[in-house]
Design goal:
Layout (H helix, E strand, L loop, with lengths): L4 E9 L21 H18 L6 E5 L1 H11 L6 H6 L8 H10 L5 H5 L3 H13 L1 H7 L2 H14 L9 H9 L5 H16 L1 H11 L2 E4 L8 H5 L4 H4 L15 H17 L5 E2 L11 H7 L3 E5 H8 L14 H4 L3 E5 L2 E8 L1 H10 L5 H21 L13 E7 L12 H13 L3 E3 L2 H7 L4 E2 L22 H18 L10 H10 L3 H5 L9 H18 L37 H4 L3 E4 L13 E8 L3 E8 L12 E7 L8 E2 L14 E2 L1 E6 L4 E7 L5 E4 L4 E4 L3 E6 H4 L6 E10 L2 E6 L5 E4 L2
Parallel strand pairs: 1-2, 1-8, 1-9, 2-3, 4-5, 5-7, 6-10
Antiparallel strand pairs: 6-7, 11-12, 12-13, 13-21, 14-17, 14-22, 15-16, 17-18, 18-19, 20-21, 22-23, 22-24
Length: about 750
């Protein structure tokens, strides 16, 4: 029997718990931030409505219980957040602090897709950017504020709904919005949100969707079981002062999730998305005992579990596809669990890279990868054949809401192009994971104790533990949990408030934002919410709240140097759009000593990547001119540590004989800063440099921005690389950045 290539898309829908425990009387509402409401109108419903148009295509959606509770609050009109409170306030009643908040926050969202397409919204944005917040406060009229309040809510309504008569009318109107208009926009938001859960249930009942759940408030179960699990992947990881070990909380989170699912979808759940795809041997019996049949994690977890690293070719395709593209069996004392592992690269291409491509080209690229996987699997068959002799499952799993903000029209053109092609393709079949494992139960077993303890972020837990700030938060949680344990009378029936506060504090999201690694414009609010949940535990027990609970976990200072926070996709126009670079690595340069004193016009350096390009940005003092205030050339030198290559000295004269300038390099990109022309060279034998084709982009206006395609460098994924930037005039050395070190990255 021959088989198509089976593909399981799993969309993870989740938002942190924004509901405060101390804001019942706050005029701005219980919900500290608006993202459940805004993503509810932009991302959750349209994703499945798009799929519904293609009934042959089956997918899996994970609805986290804490997200569903918040969606239901908004649907019933029982949730209000500061953004909504202001939108429903008559503009004549806005106070100075209200206006300041509006000016600062009501452009939240990606400019190129949410603001720029709407002329009036873009006009107000440019007024703030060009003139500053103080100017807006002085010059904006009540009508300006009313329009901005309206547009922030309109822009977050998915384009799929723009043919609605009322929405179309508002979009055409463009300006002169009234309080009545804003009230009706809010009513439209509620009507969209009300449809989310029923639509998922309807498509589940028809068999096109599998809905899966997660632990109640999205905790990292392996860390609830034992914070020492952090040292499995990172043996020298710094741990909190006090060990957190509360395995008894695991079945509580699972049971609540199970009952919530049963109540809303009228059947038992089959699959569990472990929060952040975090797994460990100790959590498996609890999952199986609750009744779940399958879980998912990341290829890095599989690699550690079976002692294989999934090397890829230059195109990004796995060399051993037969190991990754199949379910595995995990045996527990309460029965077997199936586990699937996502293709990390394919998932990231959708999540981080395809948004910057032509939608049809992006869809073709993804299908091309799937076709390459099928060909590779065929080449591994015992007998040569043009069809697959065994069933194989490619799992693509990622956040279902966050990526679409960066796609044109919220991803609709990309998904249409992808789904249209897949609907016609007889060699690729989209299935739910439940469908696949019921028809093709796993035949390979991973011994449960051999399962690696890790997550979908680097196969470790360092995103949630190990940083001093994260560890400080764990210590606060541990102290509160121990206090609860000293109150046996405080059962879930007798004192539900204390347990709800505990479950909220155990959620993963707080630890994600603490310390190094991730940051947002709302870090202080996440800190506050976490400590509110901790304080609520003590309040519910009539215990005094420790003083440290009232102190911020982090200082929330503007930090200097940092590594890249995520993939980036900047538009190379030299205009230094801060949104384009807010997740980039950053190195502060101005004020440095040594050789840098001769090029102190350089203020800072930003760097990052996606699956298509390496990106670099240099910020200079205002008004500098290449060839006059700064040298006329920039030379990027690339070195690949641990990789055997031909390497040559930098092709620049008068180089000081000192590291790292006297190192040998494999690639050289020259940039003429005056003409914005580029040339690429690759090292060959005997220290020779050969010209290669180059499609790098360069723009120099307010700053210097460069994009270098990985395809031009012809390197394999996961290569480590180190880059040095040298300034020169007519090929003669002038200075270099960063001082005495490399820009360090790893190819995606």
């Amino acid at each position: 029997m021959s088989h198509p290539l089976y593909v399981a898309f799993v969309w993870h829908q989740h938002q942190p718990l924004y509901k405060s425990r101390e804001a019942d009387s706050d005029a701005w509402g219980q919900y500290r931030l608006p993202w459940v409401r805004l993503h509810g109108t932009k991302d959750y419903l349209d994703l499945v409505l798009m799929l519904e148009r293609y009934p042959k295509l089956h997918q899996t959606v994970n609805l986290v219980p804490s997200l569903m509770l918040q969606l239901e609050d908004y649907a019933e009109g029982e949730a209000i957040d500061p953004y909504l409170a202001l939108a429903l306030t008559p503009e004549a009643q806005l106070k100075i602090k209200d206006k300041q908040y509006i000016i600062q926050h009501f452009f939240d969202g990606y400019f190129h897709t949410l603001v720029e397409p709407h002329p009036r919204y873009a006009q107000l944005y440019h007024q703030r950017q060009d003139n500053g917040a103080a100017w807006c406060l002085e010059h904006w009229t009540e009508q300006d504020y009313s329009d901005l309040l309206a547009w922030h809510n309109l822009a977050w309504i998915d384009p799929l709904f723009w043919d609605d008569a009322e929405i179309a009318g508002w979009l055409k109107q463009g300006k002169n919005f009234t309080l009545s208009d804003r009230q009706r926009i809010y009513s439209k938001q509620r009507s969209i949100i009300k449809r989310i859960i029923p639509q998922h249930k309807q498509m589940q009942d028809r068999g096109q969707l599998e809905i899966m759940t997660s632990p109640y408030t999205h905790p990292i179960l392996p860390l609830l079981a034992d914070t020492n699990a952090g040292r499995v992947a990172v043996p020298n990881l710094s741990l909190p002062q006090t060990r957190f070990q509360w395995t008894e909380d695991i079945p509580r989170h699972l049971s609540i999730a199970w009952e919530m699912y049963l109540d809303r979808f009228e059947q038992e759940p089959f699959g569990l998305w472990p929060s952040e795809q975090s797994v460990s041997p100790i959590i498996l019996p609890y999952i199986s005992q609750q009744g779940f049949k399958w879980i998912c994690s990341d290829e890095a977890v599989l690699g550690h579990s079976i002692q294989r690293f999934f090397h890829r070719d230059e195109a990004g395709n796995v060399f051993e596809p037969e190991l990754l593209y199949r379910p595995y069996r995990l045996e527990t004392e309460h029965g077997d669990l199936a586990i699937v592992f996502r293709d990390h690269r394919l998932s990231d291409l959708i999540g981080f890279t395809y948004s910057g491509m032509n939608p049809r080209h992006a869809a073709a690229d993804l299908i091309g990868h799937l076709e390459a996987i099928a060909r590779s699997l065929k080449s591994h068959q015992d007998q040569p054949d043009t069809a697959l002799q065994k069933p194989w499952l490619v799992t693509i799993a990622l956040d279902g809401e966050n990526c679409w903000e960066y796609y044109p029209r919220d991803g609709i053109p990309f998904l249409e192009a992808l789904y249209e092609r897949l609907s016609r393709d007889e060699d690729i079949k989209l299935v739910t994971v439940k469908e696949f494992i019921k028809q093709f139960p796993p035949t390979e077993t991973i011994p449960s104790q051999q399962l690696h303890s890790g997550s979908w972020v680097d196969g470790s837990f360092t995103t949630w533990i190990g940083d001093p700030v994260k560890n400080r938060a764990w210590d606060l949680l541990t102290a509160a949990r121990e206090t609860l344990a000293r109150h046996p009378e405080a059962t879930e029936e007798a004192n539900p408030e204390v347990w709800e506060a505990l479950y909220a504090a155990e959620g993963s999201d707080w630890f994600w934002w603490f310390g190094e690694g991730h940051s947002s414009n709302q870090d202080e609010m996440f800190d506050q919410l976490f400590r509110e949940h901790i304080a609520a535990i003590y309040h519910a027990l009539n215990e005094p709240v420790p003083n440290e609970v009232y102190q911020p976990v982090d200082k929330h200072e503007v930090k200097g140097d940092r590594p890249p926070q995520s993939f980036i996709h900047p538009i190379i126009n030299g205009l230094a759009d801060e949104q384009d670079w807010d997740r980039a690595g950053r190195i502060e340069v101005g004020g440095a000593r040594g050789t840098m004193h001769r090029s102190s016009n350089v203020q800072r350096l930003f760097y990052g990547l996606d699956h298509r390009n390496f990106y670099l940005r240099l910020d200079f003092k205002a008004g500098v001119q290449p060839g006059k205030d700064i040298p006329g050339e920039l030379h990027l030198l690339w070195y690949y540590p641990g990789v055997t290559n031909h390497n040559s000295p930098a092709p620049i004269s008068l180089l000081p004989d000192e590291p790292p300038l006297n190192y040998h390099f494999h690639h050289h990109l020259g940039v003429n800063l005056i003409t914005e022309s580029v040339w690429l060279q690759e090292s060959h034998s005997h220290g020779q440099w050969h010209i290669r084709a180059c499609r790098a982009e360069v723009a120099f206006e307010q700053c210097l921005e460069i994009a270098v395609p990985w395809a031009d460098l012809h390197i394999e994924p996961d290569y480590p690389l180190e880059i040095l930037a040298i300034f020169a005039d007519h090929g003669e050395f002038q200075s270099f950045v960063p001082e005495n070190k490399f820009i360090r990255l790893q190819a995606p």
